[in-house]
């Protein structure tokens, strides 16, 4: 029998990569959901339902009608500075919506895969294992941490896929990413300042989709770190991008994060240890250099 998987936020970066991946997998009956209309260019191979995750009745109705075996919950308010200035909206999208999905999962005996973030940590001691203690330093981080607790204490079958700085190309995206920003700036001959005092394990969106699929396929319970494997500063990411596209690295200058004023604080040193997803799921992400090549092939 086919496994029915429902994904939330299918218009987003991860959502789009999941639609691409899961429509290619045999044995999957895919239900894609997002706020408003489907913005994906291709509507073959899956069913689309409009679902605003902040609308409890809509969530209960759509999940009740489609009865998925697994929900992969990707939708969220992901703009960290916007979460800091619009706290009510952030809480509604990142926490209360998760409570509705938990309720719907409980009623329909659905396995819930919730996507979370390295921003639940304070960034004092990365890279982190799944067991590290959370201590968010931004409202976005607090909201995602509260959502994790709602999932963990739900009594349903659940998994949490935590990820870090996701990059990739998707259809109709307003947001850019570090690779495209560095490439465009250097091609235009612009000098850029890039920070040397933050560390991340940047994640190719295709790898994150793969990790979510491995969890869903195995219905593996618990918390899983699903990120890239290279532990890099944004400055190092910029230098690797310049190398890959053979652009002028002298335009990249080193900066300290205190140079930039942003509404939300960023954790300095996050990044993930990947021992558990490798051992339990067989997850193996690409290197950052390989990730740039995947992205470049889609330009
Ligand atoms: N991107 C990163 O660097 C990063 C890092 C760590 C963790 N994460 C986590 O990874 C997950 C996926 O992020 P992403 O990069 O794919 O983000 P994204 O591209 O911003 O996609 C998020 C999607 O959520 C949708 N959404 C927001 N509110 C909604 C609502 N009320 N109902 C239905 N859909 C709603 C958005 O819809 P619209 O398009 O209509 O606005 C958007 O398409 C999120 O849970 C995020 O917290 C991301």
UniProtKB/TrEMBL annotation:
Q: Name one GO biological process term.
A: dTDP-rhamnose biosynthetic process
Q: What is this protein called?
A: dTDP-4-dehydrorhamnose reductase
What keywords are assigned to this protein?
Answer: NADP, Oxidoreductase
Residue spans crossing the bilayer: none
Q: Which Pfam families match?
A: RmlD_sub_bind
Family (UniProt): Belongs to the dTDP-4-dehydrorhamnose reductase family.
Q: Which GO terms describe its molecular function?
A: dTDP-4-dehydrorhamnose reductase activity
Which CDD domains does this entry report, sorted A to Z?
Answer: dTDP_HR_like_SDR_e
Q: Please write the reaction equations for the catalytic activity of this protein.
A: dTDP-beta-L-rhamnose + NADP(+) = dTDP-4-dehydro-beta-L-rhamnose + NADPH + H(+)
Q: Residue ranges of the RmlD-like substrate binding domain? A: 4-296
Pathway, per Swiss-Prot/TrEMBL? Carbohydrate biosynthesis; dTDP-L-rhamnose biosynthesis
The coiled-coil segments of this chain are none
EC code(s) of this entry: 1.1.1.133
Q: Which domain of life is it from?
A: Bacteria
Q: Which InterPro entries match?
A: dTDP_dehydrorham_reduct, NAD(P)-bd_dom_sf, RmlD-like-bd
* Function as written in the Swiss-Prot or TrEMBL entry: Catalyzes the reduction of dTDP-6-deoxy-L-lyxo-4-hexulose to yield dTDP-L-rhamnose.
**A GO CC term assigned to this protein in UniProt:** cytosol
């Amino acid at each position: 029998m086919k496994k029915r998987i429902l994904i939330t936020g299918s218009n987003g970066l991860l959502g789009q990569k999941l639609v691409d991946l899961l429509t290619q997998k045999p044995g999957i009956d895919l239900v894609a959901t997002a706020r408003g209309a489907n913005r994906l260019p291709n509507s073959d191979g899956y069913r689309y339902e409009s679902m605003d995750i902040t609308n409890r009745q809509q969530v209960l109705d759509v999940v009740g009608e489609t009865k998925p075996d697994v929900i992969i919950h990707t939708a969220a308010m992901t703009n960290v500075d916007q979460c800091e200035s619009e706290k009510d909206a952030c809480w509604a999208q990142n926490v209360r919506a998760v409570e509705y999905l938990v309720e719907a999962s409980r009623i329909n005996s659905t396995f819930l895969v919730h996507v979370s973030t390295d921003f639940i940590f304070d960034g004092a001691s990365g890279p982190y294992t799944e067991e590290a203690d959370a201590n968010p330093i931004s409202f976005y981080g607090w909201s995602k941490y509260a959502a994790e607790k709602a999932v963990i204490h739900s009594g349903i079958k659940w998994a949490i896929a935590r990820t870090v700085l996701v990059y990739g190309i998707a259809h109709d995206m307003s947001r850019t990413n570090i690779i495209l920003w560095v490439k465009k700036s250097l091609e235009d001959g612009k000098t850029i300042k890039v920070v040397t005092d933050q560390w991340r394990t940047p994640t190719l969106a295709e790898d994150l989709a793969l990790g979510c699929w491995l969890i869903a396929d195995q219905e593996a319970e618990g918390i899983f770190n699903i990120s890239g494997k290279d532990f890099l500063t944004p400055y190092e990411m910029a230098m690797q991008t310049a190398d890959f596209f053979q652009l002028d690295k002298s335009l990249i200058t080193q900066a300290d994060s205190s140079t930039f004023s942003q509404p939300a604080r960023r954790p300095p040193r996050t990044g993930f240890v990947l021992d558990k997803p490798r051992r339990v799921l067989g997850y193996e992400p690409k290197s950052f250099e390989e990730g740039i090549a995947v992205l470049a092939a889609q330009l």
